[in-house]
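Risk mitigation, structural track. In case the binding assays with NAP fail to produce interpretable data, a predicted complex structure has been prepared as a fallback.
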Amino acid sequence: MNNTAFEAFTVEETAEGKFLRSIKKKTVQDLPEGDVLVKVSYSSLNYKDALSASGNKGVTRRYPHTPGIDAAGVVDYSDHSDFHPGDKVIVSGYDLGMNKSGGFGQFIRVPADWVVKLPDGLTLHESMIYGTAGFTAAQSVYKLMEHGVKPGSGEVLVTGATGGVGSVAVAILAKEGFDVVAASGKAEQKEFLTSLGAKRIISREQAMDESSKALLKERWNGVIDTVGGGILTTALKSTKYGGVVTCCGNVASPQLYMTVYPFILRGITLAGIDSANCNIETRKEVWQKIAGPWKLDCLDQLVTDITLAELDSHIEKMLHGDLKGRTVVNLH
Ligand SMILES: NC(=O)c1ccc[n+]([C@@H]2O[C@H](COP(=O)([O-])OP(=O)(O)OC[C@H]3O[C@@H](n4cnc5c(N)ncnc54)[C@H](OP(=O)(O)O)[C@@H]3O)[C@@H](O)[C@H]2O)c1
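Fallback model:
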């Protein structure tokens, strides 16, 4: 029986309904059943982890719990013929880190159909610079292009542009040759966004129309929205005839108050993005794009590396919208 001990960032609920975070010792026997035991090298911090770590029961129903919806590491043991000890793998999405012990622990045990082999062209560390947020950004670009939005035909807006999803989306779109407009609440991050490839930067206020007009001046060929609420509503009302808007997040608000006119008068498409349950074939295809044509030259600019001990403070920063780019957690 595998009794290996390891460290895991753990969230506990007190009798008073408070949520306490600390690093605990666990053993592999504490992990849920699964085909593949992975020794985690790196994880990454995503908005969902910050919610799980602060007691959001919509994300995690039961505590104590180890969050971490992303993990990249090496197979330690496998009951499944597709995986062998020593294989480098990525596990992200499904129930990892939500209701199953996640990547903020030095080991995870998961079903084989959650596991993707690390594609050639990416290191384990690089795969976590993308992580779920980067994967979602890539999925959003993929969706825009699948719906016919092409480089060179007009501006594409990215909202929440300095965030994990937003920053990777700006960089991938720029790499594909799109004219990217970045909407950000951080005026001091203009240089960062320009270095990722944004052609123009607008403030959150400029991205948000407070009038109750059903339609606004047509501005965008496509939009990758990561924040929801009034900024998403404004984007839908400002998208050009036949344009496409992807929606993946709700950091501003989950609400959408608007009329149907952008859809029935301008033929706008609102495309939902869900990375967690994305089917394994699309998942592999998107990872191949990330490791190939969409591999970014600016990965070093996007990443902040932290240890398990530094997670707590970074979770607080994320909940306040204060992080920039991607945060990779080193589990070594
Ligand atoms: N559907 C999926 O599969 C999926 C996958 C991954 C993430 N998500 C969701 O996507 C969203 C973004 O995730 P992330 O990892 O990029 O998070 P993040 O790194 O925290 O970035 C979010 C960004 O949104 C902006 N922002 C924060 N608070 C805001 C507010 N009140 N109003 C307007 N903008 C605000 C900030 O960027 P600026 O300062 O530059 O404006 C912030 O950096 C989250 O809701 C997350 O849950 C969904």
